Structure formats: C-alpha cells, structure tokens
Amino acid sequence: MKTIGPSYTELGELILSLLKQIDSIIEKGESSSELLELVTTAKEQIAELKFNIDRLAEYLEEERKKRIQKLIEEDEEE
Hints:
single chain, 78 residues, mainly alpha, 83% helix, rod-shaped, plasmid
C-alpha cells in the first residue's frame, strides 16, 4: 500500500515544526498575523493527517474483514 502525498512521518514532522514555531511566538508574548498564519496552517495539516489516518484505519478494517471471510470460506470447504 502506497501513500499519495507526504508520508505520515513527514506530516507529523511538519506539524511538530509548526507547533514549535507557535510555542516560540506565544512564549515571546507576541501576537501577530504570523501566529494566525501558523495556527491556520497547523490546523490544515492536522486535518490532513487525521483524514489520512482515518482512511488507513478504514482500509485496514476492510482488509481484516476480507481475511476473516476468506478463513470462514476455507473452513466451510473443509
């Protein structure tokens, strides 16, 4: 199974980098359009990661169901 776009790790690292930048700006007590831009970008990346993880979970569940069905059919044939 191949992923389209960035890997889970790449997305995670990008999100972590954004969160570190957000923390840095907040610790400095700054409030700026840069902070809003970083937060918006982080939200988008987190949503993409969640979407990808949800699709992976669905795929794995379907594969599990197929394997179970195959085992049942093989057992019935015996």
